[in-house]
Amino acid sequence: MLNSLAIRDFAIIKALEVDLRKGFSVITGETGAGKSIIIEAVSLALGARADTSYVRTGAAKASV
Length: 64
What we know:
It is a single chain. The protein is α+β, with helices and mostly antiparallel strands. The chain has one domain. The protein is about 15% helix and about 20% strand. The protein has one helix spanning about 35-45, and strands at about 5-10, 15-20. A two-stranded antiparallel ribbon has the order 1-2. A hairpin with a 2-residue loop joins strand 1 (about 5-10) and strand 2. It is globular, with a radius of gyration of 12 Å. About 10% of the residues are buried. The mean pLDDT is about 90.
């Protein structure tokens, strides 16, 4: 189970920390808010193949 997620310099996200609690968690927001970027970061954390295009412009590296 995923308890927390920390993202740094990933796509348009400079820094994000999310604590997930037991139960049902929902990610909502308007079009263009970055929901799909968070889902892509979760995919990487679960073992998906990384791509250098996700490193935020001006940053040396990204971390999830």
